[in-house]
Design goal:
It contains five helices and no strands. The protein is mostly helical. Mean pLDDT is 82; it is low at 167-173.
Length: 179
Amino acid sequence: MVQGANWELCKNQRAADAILYEKQKSAEGEKDSADAALYARQQAAEADLYAKKKEAEGIMAIAEAQGASLNTLLKQLGGSYEALRDYIMLTNGSFLDIAKINSQAVQGLNPKISVWSTGSNNIHGGGNGAMKEIAGIYSMLQPLLQTVNEQTGMLPPCWGNSLNPAVLLPNEYEPLSPH
């Protein structure tokens, strides 16, 4: 009976040792797998870092080459930043792009072109001095307001209708008619 109990105890002990051994090996396998995954992630991160460093070095090399090129161009253009800007805009096609954008902006417009003159330089007897200049400015307002009205449909300010160029320059302009 004691011998049977010892035998049973020994058998249970060996079964427990076998289970423990299996669990230890399984844990070691999981640890090895985790270590391998960690190593793989570290290698990938190091490769990514290396690639980024090389990319940054490439960008720096390009920037240095462009800087040297711009410096050479600037020297050749006599140090004129405006000439360098214009050269770069010409070579990059910026002026063509600007022209395209401007042409698209006015496409479909139907502008009216008004040509007017305020008369001869000899306004009413050829006076000179400040009054001649004031008369020139005054005579310019009515045709300017007329042109604005024709092209935009906007009426002049309330004082605009009180301008009477017929007094200053008779028979040259028709008065602005309000719409």
